[in-house]
C-alpha cells in the first residue's frame, strides 16, 4: 500500500494553526440579529406567568418568543416543545428567547424577563422514576406522535423498553455455581466540546430556510425541520463549516429549531444564537446517566452461564435520542462474551434532568462499566484471574450475541488477541497489585469492550468526485469534519485507489446540503466506513469513465487499461497512455472535434441487511460490524487519603486496518482521555430539587494538561471483509472501556467495590468508611 | 483617562503590529472586539469566564485570556493574536505532531505555548505543566500537544 | 460579555481615585474599584455584580510597588499574581498563590483583587494572616496602615470609598519554615476543598515550675485556612491546640479538628464530612512536615 496506513497530515491543518479555520460562530455579518435564551432555574415546575414588559423597553429588542405553543419535537417520540410551554421539566430548559440587534442587548433584555414558577415534585434519578408512586414527568405520553418501533408505557416514566430474551434463564441459573449481584449508578455529565453550539438561521423571500450550524447532522436538521414545521424539504439548506468538537453532542437537533423560530419571529432576518458555556452544558442535550442492577453467574470453571440485567437509562426530561441509546445498550448489554442465557431490560426513563444526546460510545461505555465491573467481582468470588475469566468467555466466530446473531471473524474481530496483547502491555504476569510504600499501592485493572453501530438500518452515504483541469480531484462528501480527520482519510483512500499523490486530492471541508451528497449523520464512527465505501464506488465510477473514453481514443479494449499515476495506460505497454488531465474535461482531436466531456464520479453506500429488533426477544441484526478491544489502567493509590494518579492507560483494539496511523492513534488516545475524565471526575451535581450546581468549566472539570497518563495503544488488524481496505470503526472505542478499567483498578486498590461514577476520592472514602462518622 | 457610560469611543489598538481603529464602550470585552470589530476570529470563545483558555492572546509577551480583559485595558499594549503568528516553530510542530483534532482550542494553546517558549526556552516539565494547564483540549489526550511543545523546547537546547 | 454599560475611569493617583469614588457615589453610580478585573468581568457577565462606573486603579504608582526594603516587603495591590510569584520574595506567598486559578488567569488576577474578591476563597490573604503584615488602605481621609488582624475578619473590612493599596510584611517573617497545601478532589487546578498555610515562628515564653522561672524558646505554628468555611481565617484556638507541646501529633490533630468552626462548607466541591476527613489528613501532614523542617 502506498498511502493507506501512512500518517498523512490532515488537509485543514494549516488553517487550524493559523486561526483561519472557520467555525459557525466565526461567521459575522452586519445585518445579523442575535438571540439569547432565558432558561429555567427549576427542574420541574408549572410556568404560571411570564412578564415581558421590562424586556420590551430595551431599545433594539426585535422579538420575544415565550409562552407560545410550537409543534412538539423529538426524534422518536414528539414530546419536547422547542421552547417550554406551561411547564418546565429540567433545570436549564429554554423558557423564552429574545432577538435583538446585538448580543449585549439581547442579554440585557433577557435578564429583565420575569417568569413565575410553581415548583412540582422532582424525579431526580432513573431509580426514582421507576418507583411505582413516582411523579410522572409526562402525563400524556400516549398522545405524543411517535415512530413505529418505540414503546412508551402509559402512566409511568418509561419512554421505551428494549427486551433481550436469549436462551433459557432457568437452565442458565441451574448451571450457575457462582453468582454475583450488584447495583450501579451515575448521573448525567456532558460532552463539553470546546466550541459551544452555534446556529445562524434565516428565511429568505422565497421561503428558503438557510441554517448554518455546528452540527454532526446537517441532513437530519433538514429532514426534521421539514417534519416538525412542514417546510418543503427542498427549501431547506443547511451549511456546516468546521465543527469544534462534537462527541455525539452535536448529533441532536435542538438549537437549530430555536434559531429557526427566532428568525421566523423577525420575518426571516438572519439570527445568530451562540450557546453560553452554561447553556451548552445544561440546556442543550447532555451525556446520559444510568442506574443498573445485574446478576451474573458462571460455573466453577468460569464459563458464563446466565446474565440478568436491568438498565435504567437517565433519558432526562425528553426522550429524543435517549430511546435509541438505551436500545444500543440492550444490543451489546454484556461484554464481548459467549453467554447463552441472557435476560436484559433496557429502559429509557424520563426524569427531571437535562435530556440526553448521543455521547461517544453511544451507551456502551455506560453498559461496559456495569458489566465489566461485575466480571471483576465474579472473578474475585471465583478466585480466578480476571484476564483468565475473560479469555475463557471471549466471543468467537460461531457464537451468538445477545440479539442472537451468529458472528464470524469478519464482523466480530478477535477479542482473544486483544486480551493477550493487553496482558503483555500491562505486564500482568508481574502481578496486578503491588505495595510501593507504607501508604501507596500500585494497581492494575482491565476490561474488554465491544461496540456495534445501531444507526438506522437504511442509513446511507454518498460521495461526488470532480476533476480539476490539471487532473487533480475534489472530494465532496457529507461527512462533517468534527475533528476526526475523516475527510483527509477519504483523500488517502482515493489516492491509494487511483495511485495518486494525496496532495493532488482536494477535500471540500464544509457541508452544504444542497450541493453535497447526503451522509446520514457524522456519528457512530461510521464516517470512514460508509463514506469510504461510497468514495470507492465513486472512484470505480470515474475509473470506468476514464477507461471508456481512453479505449475509444487509443482504440483498445477497456479491460486492457489501467488507471494510475495520473494516466490511463495499457497494462502490458504502459508507455502507451493518455494523461488524465488531457481527458478529464473531454478529449479534443487535433482538428478540434471533442468527445467525452467532464468526468464526474458518483458513489453511494447503504447499510446491508441490518434489521429492527424483535420487540419481545430483541433478536435481529443490529448493525454492520463490531469493533472489539481490551483496555487497562495502572494507577497509584494513596491508602490514607484515597487520592490516586492514573499512571498509564492502555488499549488494544481490533480496527481491521489502520488507515492513517497517527489519526487512528489520536482517535483512540483522545477517546481514552475523555473516558478517564468521564469516569474519574465528570458529573453534573444535582441538588435535592434537581438543580445543577456546577454548570461552568471551573466547577465541571474536564481533564487538563498534566493530568493525563502515559498512553499505550496497539492495534490488531482483523479485516472486516466489506469495510474500505478492511477498516472497522475506531472513533469511540478508546473511550468505552476506561470507566470499567479505572473502576476495576481502583476497586482492587481500595479493596472495596466501587460501582458508581465519577470515581472521586470522596466516593472511595464514602464507600470505604461507610456511614457518616461523627467522631471526627 | 475616563470614558462615559453608553458612549462609544474611538481608539487605536496595536494588534499584530498594526494600528487598528476600534469603536468601543467601556464594558466591551477584548475578545469580542477582536472578533467582531477586527474580524480576528482566530481567538475563540469557549466560556467567556476565563476557564478554558481558547481565547488566549499575547499581551506584551504575556499570555492573557482575552475574555477576562476589557478592550480599553488593551490600549497602548502590544496585542498578538494567532493571526499574528506566521511560520513559528510551534505552529509547525503542532501540525507535525498531530497536536489537534477539531482545532478549536488550538489558537489558544499555540498562543500560550509560544509565549512559554519565548519566556522559558528551557522550560522544565513542571513549568510546561503549570503553563499549559490553563487550556482545555477535549479531543486529544494532551500527548501530542506535549510532544509538540517539547520538540520545540528541546530544539532550543 | 457584560450585559450592561459602565463608565470607566483610570486615575493616576490615590487622591484622584478616592475623589472620583466620592463623586460617582454621590451620583449613585455604585462605583467599584477595578484592579485585575477578572472576577468583576465574570460576575458581571452572569448578573451577580452591577455597577455604573468602574475605577481602574492600575495606573496608581503605589499600587504597583514591588520591593523589598530594609526590613519589609511591600507589594502593591495591582501586581498580577504571577509577577509576585516570579519575584519570589516571600516563598510561602508564592507557593500559596501559585495554586489560584491557572497560570494564564494569574497573569491578570492581582493580589489586591484576590484579597478583596467576592469569591470567598481569597487564598492570597492566608500568608499575610500568619505573618506580621500590615495593610495600606486609602480613603477620602488619606492613607492608613494597619495590622492585618485588625482589618481582616473573614474579609477585608473596607469602608465605603476605601481601597487596598499595599500589603506590607516584616522581612523577618518572609523565610520562616512553612508549608502550604491546597487540597482538591482529583484535579490540579481550580477551587479547593481546603487550603492550609502554616509557618513555624520562633517564640519564647516563661515556663514556671516549682523551683524557678525560665525563658524557653520554642517554635510556634501559625496556621490559616480557606475552603473549610465560606471565608479564609486564622484560628487562635486551633493554633493553641496544635502548639500543645505535651501532646502527640495525633492528639493535636484530633483536638484541633474538634475545634473547627461549624458549619463546615457542604457544597459541590465536597461534603462537610469529607472536608473534615481531608482536613484531618492535611493537618497531620502539615505538622509532620513542619516538625522535620
Furnish the topology, listing elements before pairings.
The complex is a heterotrimer of chains A (776), B (157) and C (293).
Chain A lengths: L12 H6 L14 E7 L5 E7 L1 H4 L4 E6 L20 E2 L5 E7 L2 H8 L3 E6 L6 H5 L27 E9 L2 H7 L2 E9 L11 E6 L5 E5 L4 H12 L6 E5 L14 H11 L5 E4 L2 H6 L3 E2 L1 E10 L5 E13 L5 H10 L10 E9 L5 E2 L6 H19 L3 H8 L15 H4 L2 H11 L7 E3 L4 E12 L8 E8 L5 E5 L8 H13 L6 E3 L3 E2 L14 H28 L6 E4 L2 E4 L6 E3 H4 L1 E4 L5 E5 L1 E7 L20 E12 L5 E11 L6 H20 L29 E7 L16 H4 L1 H13 L10 H9 L7
Chain B lengths: L1 E2 L5 E7 L2 E7 L5 H8 L18 E4 L2 E4 L12 E3 L8 H8 L9 H14 L5 H8 L10 H14 L1
Parallel strand pairs in B: 2-6
Antiparallel strand pairs in B: 2-3, 4-5, 4-6
Chain C lengths: L6 E3 L4 H13 L5 E3 L3 H8 L7 E4 L9 E3 L3 E5 L4 H7 L3 H7 L5 H4 L4 H5 L10 H4 L3 E7 L2 E6 H4 E2 L1 E2 L6 E8 L7 E6 L10 E15 L4 E14 L6 E2 L1 H7 L6 H10 L13 H21 L1
What does this structure look like?
Chain A: It holds the Pfam family MoCoBD_2. Chain A: Residues 18-121 form the Aldehyde oxidase/xanthine dehydrogenase a/b hammerhead domain. Chain A: InterPro entries: Ald_Oxase/Xan_DH_a/b, Ald_Oxase/Xan_DH_a/b_sf, Ald_Oxase/xanthine_DH-like, AldOxase/xan_DH_MoCoBD1, AldOxase/xan_DH_MoCoBD2, AldOxase/xan_DH_Mopterin-bd_sf. The complex is a heterotrimer of chains A (776), B (157) and C (293). With 776 residues, chain A is α+β, with helices and mostly antiparallel strands. Chain A has three domains: 13-120 and 195-244 and 250-282, Aldehyde oxidase/xanthine dehydrogenase, a/b hammerhead (Aldehyde Oxidoreductase, domain 3); 286-455 and 610-769, Aldehyde Oxidoreductase, domain 4 (2-Layer Sandwich), CATH 3.30.365; 460-606, 2-Layer Sandwich (Aldehyde Oxidoreductase, domain 4). In chain A, helix 10 runs parallel beside helix 19 and helix 14 runs parallel beside helix 15. Residues 771-776 of chain A have low confidence and may be disordered. Helix content of chain B is 33%, strand content 17%. Chain B folds into two domains: 11-82, Beta-grasp domain (Ubiquitin-like (UB roll)); 84-156, [2Fe-2S]-binding domain (DNA polymerase, domain 1). In chain B, strands 3-2-6-4-5 form a five-stranded mixed β-sheet, with helices on both faces. In chain B, helix 2 crosses helix 5 (143-156). Chain C is an alpha+beta fold and 293 residues long. Chain C has three domains: 7-56, 2-Layer Sandwich (Uridine Diphospho-n-acetylenolpyruvylglucosamine Reductase, domain 2), CATH 3.30.43; 61-172, 2-Layer Sandwich (Uridine Diphospho-n-acetylenolpyruvylglucosamine Reductase, domain 3), CATH 3.30.465.10; 176-292, Enolase-like, domain 1 (2-Layer Sandwich), CATH 3.30.390.50. Chain C contains eleven helices and 14 strands. In chain C, helix 3 packs antiparallel against helix 4. The radius of gyration of chain C is 20 Å and the shape is globular. The relative contact order of chain C is 0.11. Chains A and B meet through helix 1 and helix 17 of A and helix 1, helix 2, helix 3 and helix 5 of B.
Amino acid at each position: 500500500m502506498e498511502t493507506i496506513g501512512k500518517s498523512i497530515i490532515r488537509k485543514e491543518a494549516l488553517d487550524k494553526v493559523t486561526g483561519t479555520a472557520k467555525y459557525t460562530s466565526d461567521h459575522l455579518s452586519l445585518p445579523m440579529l442575535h438571540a439569547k435564551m432565558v432558561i429555567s432555574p427549576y427542574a420541574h415546575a408549572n410556568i404560571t406567568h411570564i412578564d415581558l414588559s421590562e424586556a420590551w423597553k430595551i431599545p433594539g429588542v426585535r422579538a420575544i418568543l415565550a409562552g407560545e405553543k410550537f409543534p412538539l419535537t423529538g426524534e422518536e417520540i414528539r414530546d419536547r416543545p422547542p421552547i417550554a410551554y406551561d411547564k418546565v421539566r429540567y433545570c436549564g430548559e429554554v423558557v423564552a428567547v429574545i432577538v435583538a440587534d446585538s448580543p449585549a442587548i439581547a442579554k440585557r433584555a433577557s435578564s429583565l424577563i420575569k417568569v413565575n414558577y410553581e415548583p412540582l415534585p422532582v424525579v431526580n434519578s432513573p431509580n426514582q422514576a421507576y418507583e411505582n408512586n413516582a411523579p410522572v414527568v409526562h402525563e400524556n405520553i400516549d398522545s405524543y406522535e411517535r415512530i413505529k418501533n418505540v414503546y412508551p408505557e402509559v402512566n409511568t416514566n418509561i419512554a421505551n423498553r428494549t427486551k433481550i430474551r436469549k436462551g433459557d434463564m432457568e437452565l442458565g441459573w441451574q448451571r450457575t455455581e457462582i453468582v454475583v449481584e450488584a447495583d450501579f449508578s451515575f448521573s448525567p455529565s456532558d460532552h463539553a466540546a470546546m466550541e459551544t453550539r452555534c446556529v445562524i438561521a434565516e428565511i429568505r423571500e422565497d421561503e428558503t430556510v438557510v441554517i448554518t450550524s455546528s452540527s454532526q447532522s446537517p441532513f437530519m436538521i433538514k429532514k426534521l425541520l421539514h417534519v416538525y414545521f412542514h417546510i418543503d424539504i427542498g427549501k431547506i439548506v443547511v451549511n456546516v463549516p468546521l465543527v469544534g468538537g462534537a462527541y455525539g453532542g452535536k448529533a441532536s437537533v435542538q438549537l437549530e429549531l430555536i434559531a429557526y423560530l427566532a428568525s421566523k419571529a423577525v420575518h426571516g432576518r438572519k439570527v445568530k444564537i451562540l450557546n453560553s458555556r452554561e447553556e451548552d452544558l445544561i440546556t442543550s442535550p447532555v451525556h446520559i446517566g444510568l442506574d443498573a442492577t445485574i446478576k451474573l453467574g458462571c460455573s466453577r470453571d468460569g464459563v458464563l452461564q446466565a446474565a440478568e440485567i436491568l438498565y435504567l437509562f437517565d433519558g432526562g426530561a425528553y426522550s429524543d435520542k435517549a430511546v435509541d441509546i438505551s436500545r444500543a445498550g440492550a444490543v451489546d448489554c454484556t461484554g464481548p462474551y459467549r453467554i447463552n442465557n441472557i435476560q436484559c431490560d433496557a429502559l429509557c426513563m424520563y426524569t427531571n434532568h437535562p435530556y440526553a444526546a448521543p455521547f461517544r460510545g453511544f451507551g456502551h461505555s455506560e453498559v461496559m462499566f456495569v458489566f465489566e465491573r461485575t466480571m471483576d467481582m465474579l472473578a474475585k468470588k471465583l478466585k480466578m484471574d480476571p484476564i483468565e475469566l475473560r479469555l475463557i468467555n471471549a466471543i468467537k466466530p460461531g457464537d451468538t450475541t445477545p440479539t442472537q446473531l451468529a458472528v464470524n471473524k469478519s464482523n466480530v474481530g478477535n477479542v482473544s488477541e486483544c486480551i493477550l496483547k493487553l496482558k503483555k502491555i500491562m505486564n500482568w504476569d508481574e502481578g496486578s497489585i503491588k505495595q510501593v510504600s507504607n501508604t501507596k499501592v500500585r494497581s492494575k485493572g482491565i476490561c474488554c469492550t465491544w461496540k456495534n453501530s445501531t444507526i438506522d438500518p437504511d442509513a446511507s452515504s454518498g460521495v461526488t468526485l470532480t476533476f480539476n483541469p490539471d487532473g487533480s480531484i475534489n472530494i465532496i462528501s457529507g461527512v462533517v469534519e468534527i475533528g476526526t480527520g475523516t475527510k483527509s482519510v477519504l483523500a488517502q483512500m482515493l489516492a491509494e485507489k487511483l495511485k495518486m499523490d494525496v496532495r493532488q486530492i482536494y477535500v471540500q471541508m464544509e457541508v452544504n446540503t444542497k450541493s453535497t451528497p447526503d451522509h446520514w449523520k457524522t456519528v457512530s464512527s461510521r464516517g470512514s466506513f460508509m463514506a469510504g465505501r461510497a468514495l470507492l464506488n465513486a472512484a470505480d465510477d470515474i475509473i470506468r469513465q476514464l477507461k471508456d473514453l481512453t479505449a475509444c481514443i487509443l482504440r483498445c479494449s477497456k479491460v486492457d487499461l489501467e488507471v494510475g499515476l495520473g494516466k490511463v495506460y495499457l497494462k502490458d505497454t504502459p508507455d502507451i497512455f493518455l494523461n488524465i488531465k488531457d481527458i478529464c474535461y473531454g478529449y479534443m482531436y487535433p482538428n478540434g472535434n471533442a468527445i467525452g466531456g467532464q468526468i464526474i464520479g458518483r458513489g453511494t453506500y447503504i447499510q446491508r441487511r441490518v434489521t429492527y429488533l424483535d420487540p419481545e426477544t430483541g433478536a435481529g441484526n443490529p448493525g454492520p460490524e463490531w469493533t472489539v478491544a481490551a483496555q487497562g489502567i495502572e494507577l497509584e493509590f494513596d491508602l490514607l487519603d484515597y487520592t490516586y494518579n492514573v499512571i498509564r492507560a492502555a488499549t488494544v483494539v481490533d480496527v481491521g486496518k489502520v488507515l492513517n496511523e497517527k489519526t487512528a492513534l489520536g482517535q483512540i488516545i483522545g477517546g481514552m482521555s475523555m473516558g478517564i475524565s468521564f469516569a474519574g471526575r465528570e458529573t453534573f451535581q444535582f441538588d435535592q430539587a434537581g438543580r445543577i450546581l456546577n454548570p461552568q468549566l471551573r466547577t465541571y472539570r474536564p481533564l487538563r494538561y498534566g493530568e493525563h497518563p502515559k498512553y499505550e495503544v496497539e492495534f490488531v488488524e482483523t479485516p472486516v471483509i466489506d469495510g474500505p481496505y478492511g477498516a472497522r470503526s475506531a472513533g469511540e472505542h478508546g473511550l468505552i472501556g476506561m470507566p470499567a478499567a479505572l473502576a476495576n483498578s481502583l476497586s482492587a486498590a481500595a479493596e472495596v467495590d466501587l460501582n458508581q461514577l465519577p470515581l472521586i476520592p470522596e466516593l472511595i472514602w464514602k464507600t470505604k468508611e461507610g456511614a457518616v462518622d461523627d467522631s471526627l | 483617562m475616563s470614558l462615559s457610560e453608553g458612549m462609544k469611543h474611538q481608539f487605536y489598538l496595536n494588534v499584530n503590529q498594526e494600528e487598528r481603529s476600534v469603536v468601543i464602550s467601556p464594558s466591551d470585552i477584548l475578545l469580542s472586539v477582536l472578533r467582531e470589530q477586527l474580524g480576528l476570529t482566530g481567538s475563540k470563545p469557549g466560556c467567556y469566564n476565563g476557564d478554558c483558555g481558547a481565547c488566549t492572546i499575547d499581551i506584551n509577551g504575556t499570555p492573557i485570556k482575552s475574555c477576562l480583559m476589557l478592550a480599553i485595558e488593551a490600549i497602548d499594549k502590544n496585542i498578538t493574536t494567532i493571526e499574528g503568528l506566521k511560520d513559528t516553530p510551534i505552529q509547525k510542530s503542532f501540525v507535525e505532531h498531530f497536536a489537534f483534532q477539531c482545532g478549536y482550542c488550538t489558537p489558544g494553546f499555540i498562543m500560550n505555548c509560544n509565549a512559554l517558549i519565548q519566556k522559558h526556552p528551557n522550560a522544565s516539565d513542571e513549568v510546561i505543566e503549570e503553563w499549559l494547564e490553563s487550556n482545555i483540549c477535549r479531543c486529544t489526550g494532551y500527548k501530542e500537544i506535549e510532544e509538540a511543545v517539547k520538540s520545540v523546547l528541546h530544539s532550543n537546547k | 460579555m457584560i450585559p450592561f454599560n459602565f463608565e470607566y475611569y483610570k486615575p493616576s493617583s490615590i487622591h484622584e481615585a478616592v475623589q472620583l469614588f466620592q463623586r460617582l457615589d454621590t451620583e449613585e453610580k455604585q462605583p467599584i474599584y477595578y484592579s485585575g478585573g477578572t472576577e468583576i468581568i465574570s460576575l458581571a457577565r452572569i448578573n451577580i455584580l452591577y455597577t455604573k462606573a468602574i475605577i481602574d486603579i492600575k495606573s496608581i504608582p503605589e499600587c504597583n510597588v514591588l520591593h523589598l526594603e530594609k526590613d519589609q516587603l511591600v507589594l502593591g495591590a495591582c501586581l498580577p499574581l504571577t509577577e509576585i510569584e516570579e519575584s519570589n520574595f516571600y516563598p510561602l506567598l508564592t507557593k500559596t498563590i501559585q495554586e489560584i486559578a491557572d497560570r494564564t488567569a494569574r497573569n491578570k488576577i492581582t493580589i489586591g483583587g484576590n484579597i478583596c474578591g467576592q469569591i470567598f476563597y481569597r487564598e492570597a490573604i492566608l500568608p499575610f494572616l500568619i505573618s506580621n503584615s500590615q495593610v495600606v488602605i486609602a480613603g477620602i481621609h488619606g492613607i492608613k496602615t494597619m495590622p492585618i488582624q485588625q482589618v481582616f475578619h473573614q474579609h477585608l473590612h473596607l469602608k465605603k470609598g476605601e481601597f487596598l493599596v499595599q500589603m506590607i510584611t516584616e522581612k523577618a517573617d518572609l523565610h520562616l519554615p512553612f508549608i502550604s497545601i491546597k487540597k482538591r478532589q482529583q484535579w490540579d487546578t481550580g477551587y479547593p476543598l481546603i487550603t492550609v498555610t502554616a509557618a513555624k515562628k520562633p517564640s519564647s515564653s516563661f515556663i514556671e515550675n516549682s523551683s524557678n522561672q525560665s525563658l524557653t524558646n520554642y517554635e510556634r505554628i501559625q496556621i490559616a485556612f480557606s475552603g473549610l468555611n465560606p471565608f479564609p481565617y486564622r484560628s487562635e484556638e486551633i493554633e493553641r491546640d496544635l502548639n500543645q507541646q505535651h501532646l502527640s501529633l495525633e492528639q493535636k490533630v484530633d483536638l484541633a479538628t474538634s475545634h473547627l468552626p461549624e458549619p463546615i462548607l457542604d457544597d459541590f466541591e465536597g461534603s462537610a464530612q469529607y472536608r473534615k476527613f481531608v482536613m484531618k489528613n492535611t493537618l497531620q501532614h502539615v505538622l509532620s512536615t513542619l516538625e522535620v523542617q
